[in-house]
């Protein structure tokens, strides 16, 4: 699939699936026994999906895709570490995915917890604290810009994550610079199921939003 799929084509395919999901008319492609047999020898996904671990954010469902379509990486609050970067680089450089998606959402517990920690000076225990610390930069940036609405904090964190991926991964940055891949940030609304474009690198925002 990725051999002939362009960056724009991959994005359009992904968003078409979300429109079907929102409309309540999913096609459930590539979810049958024949597809299972087809992809057993190897995978050829068309997009890397780096999303929040929230149980309401199952990528194959909300984008109406199936087996072998998406290379999915998930962490709470889509926070980034070496394992995440390595997984995304694998999806782009080894599997040849032309599209990387950072998928955030409203009512994100990680962002809410970080906002509380910044405001009250309190924090969680254990490794949850590490998640909060990694989201703090986004929350502080939103505060500095005078943002007050939840959606603004979510969007800022999505933009920060996209920028962080490109800043820390030379492999990904080179793929985008050479036109072999694009990185987009989407914000998902839990109530209506829509995925809204927040930022895009390597693809024209107007084309992506069309």
UniProtKB/TrEMBL annotation:
Belongs to the beta-class carbonic anhydrase family. Catalyzes the reversible hydration of carbon dioxide to form bicarbonate. Keywords: Lyase, Zinc. The keyword Iron does not apply. InterPro entries: Carbonic_anhydrase, Carbonic_anhydrase_CS, Carbonic_anhydrase_sf. It catalyses: hydrogencarbonate + H(+) = CO2 + H2O. It is an enzyme of class 4 (lyase). The keyword Mitochondrion does not apply. This is carbonic anhydrase. GO terms for molecular function: carbonate dehydratase activity. Its EC number is 4.2.1.1.
């Amino acid at each position: 699939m990725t051999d002939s799929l362009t960056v724009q084509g991959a994005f359009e395919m992904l968003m078409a699936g979300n429109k079907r999901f929102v409309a309540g008319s999913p096609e459930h492609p590539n979810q049958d026994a024949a597809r299972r047999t087809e992809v057993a020898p190897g995978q050829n996904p068309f997009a890397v999906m780096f999303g929040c671990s929230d149980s309401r954010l199952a990528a194959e469902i909300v984008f109406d895709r199936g087996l072998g379509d998406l290379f999915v990486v998930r962490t709470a609050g889509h926070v980034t570490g070496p394992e995440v970067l390595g997984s995304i680089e694998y999806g782009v450089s080894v599997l040849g995915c032309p599209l990387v998606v950072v998928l955030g959402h409203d009512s994100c517990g990680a962002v809410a917890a970080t906002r509380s920690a910044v405001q009250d000076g309190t924090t969680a225990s254990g490794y949850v604290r590490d998640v909060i610390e990694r989201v703090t930069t986004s929350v502080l940036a939103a505060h500095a810009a005078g943002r007050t609405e939840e959606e603004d904090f979510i969007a800022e964190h999505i933009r920060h994550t996209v920028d962080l991926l490109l800043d820390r991964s030379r492999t990904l940055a080179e793929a985008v610079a050479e036109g072999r891949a694009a990185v987009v940030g989407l914000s998902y609304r839990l109530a209506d199921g829509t995925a809204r474009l927040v930022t895009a690198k390597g693809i024209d925002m107007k084309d992506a939003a069309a």
